[in-house]
């Protein structure tokens, strides 16, 4: 199994314990994380990316136990193996598209995928040297997807990646995420409320407060 979790739980200070359903994903498999507002979806993504440390449970990715890694080791493992797409693109405004992607290579200490070819696949080849401040919202989100993919991660995590996009860009972003997960053999986990995304991916877990 490429990616699995077992008996994960977490409690924010002073808050009740959140318990999460187990996840099991093979390469190129996609999973939606559904649940009401406040149920713990973002918390789960933060656990899966190692940004939070669980109260109990295991997170296993590509033969490594994530919960056993700390500090620099964890940062490096995350940079190489986990790509994260946020609700908003969070690009570095003073830099070009290419420089934003080079930064991801630099932080993970890897040369990863070739940037111009990846941008071409995402329909963004012409914007290689554009300042990110000149991009439309859909374009900026595609660059943030390129940034998440540039190190060919084994796990792609996306938190409401389509919530500010129109129907055409939503379709495009979901198809790109699925195609790329297939190409690089990654598992894909998407947190969403978006019915348009649910139409494309049938496998889901539901996070509930107990
Ligand atoms: N830093 C924090 N400190 C204390 N409580 C927190 C913190 N972050 C989240 N919580 C609480 O933990 C619970 C889960 O929050 P989380 O953001 O994971 O939910 P969510 O399902 O992603 O919600 P939404 O769909 O509204 O984004 C909520 O009750 C929230 O108030």
From TrEMBL:
<protein>
    <submittedName>
        <fullName>Putative ABC transport system ATP-binding protein</fullName>
    </submittedName>
</protein>
<keyword id="KW-0547">Nucleotide-binding</keyword>
<dbReference type="GO" id="GO:0005886">
    <property type="term" value="C:plasma membrane"/>
</dbReference>
<feature type="domain" description="ABC transporter">
    <location>
        <begin position="3"/>
        <end position="209"/>
    </location>
</feature>
<dbReference type="GO" id="GO:0005524">
    <property type="term" value="F:ATP binding"/>
</dbReference>
<dbReference type="InterPro" id="IPR027417">
    <property type="entry name" value="P-loop_NTPase"/>
</dbReference>
<dbReference type="GO" id="GO:0016887">
    <property type="term" value="F:ATP hydrolysis activity"/>
</dbReference>
<keyword id="KW-0067">ATP-binding</keyword>
<dbReference type="GO" id="GO:0022857">
    <property type="term" value="F:transmembrane transporter activity"/>
</dbReference>
<dbReference type="InterPro" id="IPR015854">
    <property type="entry name" value="ABC_transpr_LolD-like"/>
</dbReference>
<dbReference type="Pfam" id="PF00005">
    <property type="entry name" value="ABC_tran"/>
</dbReference>
<dbReference type="InterPro" id="IPR003593">
    <property type="entry name" value="AAA+_ATPase"/>
</dbReference>
<dbReference type="InterPro" id="IPR003439">
    <property type="entry name" value="ABC_transporter-like_ATP-bd"/>
</dbReference>
